[in-house]
Amino acid sequence: MSSLSKAKFKNIIESEQSDFKIIAEHFKLFKKNHTQRIIDHLLLLKDDHGGFPVDRLTHCLQTATLAYQDGRDPEYVVCALLHDIGDTLACYNHADLAATLLEPFISEKNYWMLKHHGIFQGYYFFHHIGLDRFQRNQFKDHPYFSYTEEFCRKYDSPAFDQNMETLPLEFFIPMLEQVLATPKKSLYKNI
């Protein structure tokens, strides 16, 4: 990218269309590495156990493995793979980070599932840490309640097994590339 021109303005207010033509060319190159940047961040979860029997990366891989083995589509499997990617940066709202990261590329249903999976997963352990395990019931009439409950019960909750056969990250990279190839909704999708 260093051989490309740079915009000349000092601030956005003084910018011109020609400046943003240059910036758009940079963006086209930058977005080509989006999947690799996500993979690099996901790898930050390796060796971070947080007290769990498996590290956070293995947990994500196991969640995706279970979803894949159950015949879920690539978008769902990618959601399963990245559902806890926010653990290192957003320890107080990791589900929001995962949902926001994938929002341009996934359905409303999968976005809602990702955004709320932390509360739904809490059903299995909140009572052990002094929280209300029934917090998810505030959403009992939501159309995606059962969908999110199923994600936690079938894929997220069982994915802490040291003895589980787990597909490697490399197996999921083509699905990541497929899902992240074209945003469905974004201000910048046509750039």
From TrEMBL:
HD domain location: 56-118
Keywords on record: Hydrolase
GO molecular function terms noted in the UniProt entry: hydrolase activity
Tagged with keyword Chaperone: no
Coiled coil: none
InterPro entries: HD_domain (IPR006674), OP_Dioxygenase (IPR052567)
Entry protein name: Phosphohydrolase
Organism encoding this protein: Acinetobacter populi
